[in-house]
Design a protein that fits this description.
The protein contains 20 helices and eleven strands. By secondary structure, the protein is α/β, with parallel strands linked by helices. The strands form two sheets. Strands 1, 4, 5, 6, 7, 8, 9 and 10 form an eight-stranded mixed β-sheet that branches. A hairpin with a 5-residue loop joins strand 2 (81-83) and strand 3. It is globular. The N and C termini lie far apart (60 Å).
Amino acid sequence: MKRMHSLLPATLVALIGLGGCATRPVNPPITKVDPDAGYTFQTREKHFRSPDNLVILAFSGGGTRAAAFSYGVLEYLRRTEVVAPNGAKVRLLDAVDVITGVSGGSFTALAYGLYGDKLFADYEQRFLKRNVQGELFSRSMNPGNWGKLASTGWGRSELAADYYDEILFNGATFGDLDRGSGPFIMASATDISTGGRVVFQQNIFNLLCSDLNAVRLSRAAAASSAVPVVLSTVTLNNYGGTCNYAAPAWVKMFTQSAEPPRPAARAIRELKEGETYADSVHRPYVHLVDGGVSDNVGMRGVLDALQFLEALHTAGLPTRLDHVKRIIVFVVNSLSSPPINWDVSEQGPGVIDVLLKSTGVPIDHYSFEAIEQLKDIAARWQMGRHVRDLAACSTSKDSAVCAAIRPPQAEIYSIDVSFAVVPDKAERDFLNLQPTSFVLPAEAVDRLRAAAGAAIAASPDFQRLLKDVGATVVADPRAAAAAAAQ
């Protein structure tokens, strides 16, 4: 027995030593930027379904709660067909062009981008109804992983990324998305040094002089969901300044002008933050954490794009979206608001409760503001078009007025998919009790999925969209049969 005890420390040291050689994956450099290559909005446009419509799904953060709720949106769009005035039937899911994903929502976005319809066969078992959180904790407590966890650059998020590959992504990279024909997936994380968003798309990686196609989807998901303190940062190598990168002309108009066009001033800050990557001598690494820190509803990129579009249009400059008649945004917000009763007691909340609330409240408020900002942009464009229509633009007297009023022609539909709009109050109360974690009971997963469809159907903007395009909803016979069986 004494000899066995003496062997334990040596065994432990050996186990740690075996893992000590682990190194994090390194994103490879590129020697020259090709603006027409890689995984970008521009290169994905050829796969967009309609020249008239741009359909965007914005998936928020919130752990498995967000992953399940956003998956419910995909399910609803998949089983819902619309009949166009010409009689053609189209699945709503096939009309989706762009999906943004943050934290928990990034798993659903990336997995759908990779697998398409095949996702619906096993996503529940592979991810949603799995105890991801428990398995990650178990692996971090395994002595066999301690050496790797202690090595430079290989932390808990790299452990998580390897696990996500095992259960969901199978080693797939952005190169696999680039070769596919699905919607453009924009998973985002946060640069902990600047607080800015880092979207996993080649335009951002061009600033880093790096090849996104070689990056595993699992690392993007790990970075997007790397909750500070709980999980380690995901580190990227920065080679900025070594690949002859030159900003596009429209970017220079915003970043190098003394008076950049309005109303894009807030979006310009993000462009300027990106320019700091050119100094790889002083910033050889970029450390990423949870995307929810900078944008918890996945709306920042959408808002920035709309602001740039409006500014360029107002300046009379052509844009890639001038032909679009409708911009349809499903804002899939899985923010939960569990009831609290702190104010009925003289005893204040505990340290953990205060910490969670103090970090969550600013994010929740920003989420609300982002959604309202989208509605403000839609109202401003609509008013601009109305004013222009009222002006007598055919006369020379009013030509200057008409020239100054250049709202984009696109109509914006902001479809609120959140717990707050679920019609059933009891169901809303249940959803708001679901925690932000990577494990939920199977019943909660199923109810989140069903609630997403109920929220879409209840949306006034969704009903307005169907009316404006002259389409009618065709219920999926399989969905009707399932509902009858329940």
